[in-house]
Amino acid sequence: MATQLTSTRQRLIDAALQLFSIQGITETTTRQIAELAQVNEVTLFRHFGNKQGLLLAAISESAVFKDFGESLREKASQTSSLHQALKDYASDRLQALEQVPELVLSVVGESRRYSSEHQQVIGEYLTQANQYVAEYIATVIEREQLQTNLPVSQLASLLNSLLLGYAAIQFTTGFQALWQSRDEFLESLVELFLNQVEAESSVEKIIDLPANLVHTILQKAKKIELQDYALMYVLFATGLSALEIANLERVHQIIDRDRYLLQITQGSVRQVPVNQWILGKRYGSYTRNPLTQWLKSRKDNEAALFLNDAGLPLSEIEIQQRWQIITQGLLTPEGQAPVIVQTQQTWCVEMLMKGMTLENLSMLTGQSLKQLKPYIQRVKEKIAIEQAIQRDRDSQ
């Protein structure tokens, strides 16, 4: 019986979507929908109450909105940068809208002809969609310790409005003169929104760790166990976050005599090099280093690069806990306990000091140019110090 009810309900939704797309929402009657679904009109009312109820169900179960909230919550937990979060969401929504172009045009084109009941139904669902997006953006912003010039709810509403407008123009005219490609539109859209977001003062100050402290941390880890040594090595040799490291698996390695790369598959998808040299000291080679030695020593078949005591993948929180144990009792030149985010800052500063451009660093880290701008000032400070020391030596 339940299977039959589900089948009938789905036939009504499919029939509604088909008719809404062909002749519009206002021109479609419940009788037409029932006839196309091969049921009587009373059955439609029993399932949905009226056309407004059916419209709500048809929209919510379309490709654009199906499992929308749950999907965004899952993505938020996997995305490490706001730039990637915005681009992933915008790209996904445009692809979903393309699956139901006629429905989109019907919703947009007929909006002035809708009854107040229809307007209320669509308005409620768009409000819910904006709320899901606002929560998605807020999760990433909070994790990156950012602040916005506009409320997150307004950013979400503006983002959805621009995406719907772009889709409507595309479906109506195929007009492309404003943008060379969809990617160009998406990048411009993301940069527009990133201009409304800035790092909090505590994050804007880049505090990289000095070489002697970094090497002390690595040596302390080496004395504890091989996995801790490998973990600290990856933190300082790649500039990856604890979350990105937690998601790494053995198959994500690309290794030969001339290079060692790790493939990041979640959040900002990219490849990052594993450096042999860390702040003037070499830690093995591309094929023989703390990480390869740790993996070679293992007897298990687990996919993850790092494991906890139970043999399960090491989580982001567990990585942070290991960092705290290893760095216990150590202090930075500022008199503070070193924090794990400083491994990324140290790596980024080192790469820039070696001549890497900000654009290339953006590709390796998955961070936007705006997020990386604070590093410019820190690099200038270090260059000034080195020049002063060199001038002093030259005067001897």
Primary descriptors:
396 residues; mainly alpha; Tetracycline Repressor, domain 2; hpI Integrase, Chain A; 3-stranded antiparallel sheet
Provide the CATH topology of the largest domain. Answer: hpI Integrase, Chain A
CATH class of the largest domain: Mainly Alpha
Beta-strand share of residues: 5-15%
Question: What is the 3D form?
Answer: elongated
Main beta sheet strand tally, sense and closure: 3 strands, antiparallel
GO biological process, one term: DNA recombination
Domain HTH tetR-type: 6-66
DNA-binding region: 29-48
InterPro entries: DNA_brk_join_enz, Homeodomain-like_sf, HTH-type_TetR-like_transc_reg, HTH_TetR, Integrase-like_cat_sf, Tet_transcr_reg_TetR-rel_C_sf
Task: Describe the structure in your own words.
- Residues 29-48 bind DNA.
- InterPro entries: DNA_brk_join_enz, Homeodomain-like_sf, HTH-type_TetR-like_transc_reg, HTH_TetR, Integrase-like_cat_sf, Tet_transcr_reg_TetR-rel_C_sf.
- This is Transcriptional regulator, TetR family.
- This protein has 19 helices and 7 strands.
- The chain folds into 2 domains: 62-199, Tetracycline Repressor, domain 2 (Orthogonal Bundle); 211-395, Orthogonal Bundle (hpI Integrase, Chain A).
- The protein has helices at residues 2-23, 30-37, 41-48, 51-60, 68-78, 82-99, 101-109, 116-143, 152-173, 182-194, 201-204, 211-224, 226-238, 242-246, 290-297, 316-326, 341-353, 358-365, 369-394, and strands at 146-148, 197-199, 253-256, 259-264, 270-273, 277-278, 281-282.
- α6 runs parallel beside α9 and α18 crosses α19 (369-394).
- With 396 residues, the protein is mainly alpha-helical.
- The chain is elongated and about 95 Å long.
- Strands 3-4-5 form a 3-stranded antiparallel β-sheet. Strands 1-2 form a two-stranded antiparallel ribbon.
